[in-house]
Amino acid sequence: MKTSPIAVERRLDERSKELRRVIVSMVVAAGRGHLASALSIVEILRVLYDDILHYNPADPKLPDRDRFILSKGHGCLALYAILADKGFFPKEELLKFCSKDSILGGHPEYGKVPGVEASTGSLGHGLSIGIGFALNAKHEKKNYRTFVLIGDGESDEGSVWEAALCASKHKLSNLIVVVDCNKKQSYDTTFNVLDLEPLVDKWRSFGFITAEADGHDVEQLKTVFAKAPLHPAKPSLIICHTVKGKGIDFVERDLKWHHKSNIPKEEIQALLSAF
C-alpha cells in the first residue's frame, strides 16, 4: 500500500514563520544553501527541541541528554536556526553561514558546532551512528533516547536498511527514526528515482513499530513524539509527511531549489518578502 496521504497544507504560525525568516536570512547572506530541504523539517525540529528532547545548551555534552542526529545533513539550515534559538551558540553566527571564518558549514560538523552530535551529509550514515548511541545507552543502562531524522530520498541507501536490521535485532526501543517524507529528492520524485513504496510496510517488515503524522502540524507532532518510544522492545519509526520548501510558494515542490547558488536579486527580494 502507498504511504498515507496525510494533509500537509496547514497554515504556519508565527514561530514557524520566524524560524523560516532566519533560514532565509542565512541563505541570502551566504548566497547559497539547501533551502527547500531545510524548510520541510522546521516543524519537526521545532517540536523536538521545544517539547520532546532532554538537553542543556549550557552543557551540550550532558551525559543523560537525548541525542538527535540530522542524517539528512544538507537540511542543516533548519538545525542551525533551532540550535541558535535554544542558545547553543550566538545567533550572530547564523549570518556567517558558509563563510571561511564560520563554524557553520554546508553540512553539520561534530566537534565544531555545539549541539551537533554527528558529522552528516554523506547520506545513509546517520542511522548507523544513532544505533551506536542507542546500543551504548543500553550497555550503560542509561535512559536517554536517540532520534535520527532521515530523508525519504536518503532511504535509497542500502546502509539505511542494514542499520534497520541491526536496530531490530538488538531490540533498540530507545531508537526513534523520523522520516522527512516530502516525496522529492535532488532531481525528481522519490517515486521516479527509486520507488520506496510501500514505505510503512517496509519498516514494519524490518521489525519497527510505525506511526505517521502531518510533518507541519505542530499538535500532531507533539502527540506522536510524546509517545516515543512506541514499543518497549522494538525500535520506532515515525513518518512525517511534509512539503519540500514548505512556506514559500515559489519554492514549494520546485526541485530547482534543492540547492541553489548565485541567486538572482529578484529571487532574493522575493525570499525576503515571503513572510
The total of beta strands comes to 7
CATH superfamily: Thiamin diphosphate (ThDP)-binding fold, Pyr/PP domains
Query: How much of the sequence is in beta strands?
Result: 5-15%
Distance between the termini: 37 Å
In CATH, the topology is named Rossmann fold
Class in CATH? Alpha Beta
Gross morphology is globular
Order of helices and strands: HEHHEHHEHEHHEHEEH
Radius of gyration: 18 Å
What class, by secondary structure content? alpha/beta
Q: What is the CATH architecture descriptor?
A: 3-Layer(aba) Sandwich
Write down the overall mean pLDDT: 95
Count, helices: 10
Question: What is this structure's SSE topology?
Answer:
Blueprint: H1 14-30, E1 32-33, H2 35-39, H3 42-52, E2 67-70, H4 76-85, H5 126-139, E3 146-151, H6 158-169, E4 175-181, H7 190-194, H8 199-205, E5 209-214, H9 218-226, E6 236-241, E7 260-261, H10 265-272
Parallel strand pairs: 2-3, 3-4, 4-6, 5-6
Antiparallel strand pairs: 1-7
Helix pairs in contact: 1-4, 3-4, 3-9
Q: How would you describe the overall organization of this protein?
A:
There is one protein chain. By secondary structure, the protein is of the alpha/beta class. It has one domain: Rossmann fold. Helices cover 36% and strands 12% of the residues. It has ten helices and seven strands. The protein has helices spanning 14-30, 35-39, 42-52, 76-85, 126-139, 158-169, 190-194, 199-205, 218-226, 265-272; strands spanning 32-33, 67-70, 146-151, 175-181, 209-214, 236-241, 260-261. The strands form two sheets. The protein has a five-stranded parallel β-sheet with strand order 2-3-4-6-5, sandwiched between helices. The model has no long low-confidence stretch (mean pLDDT 95).
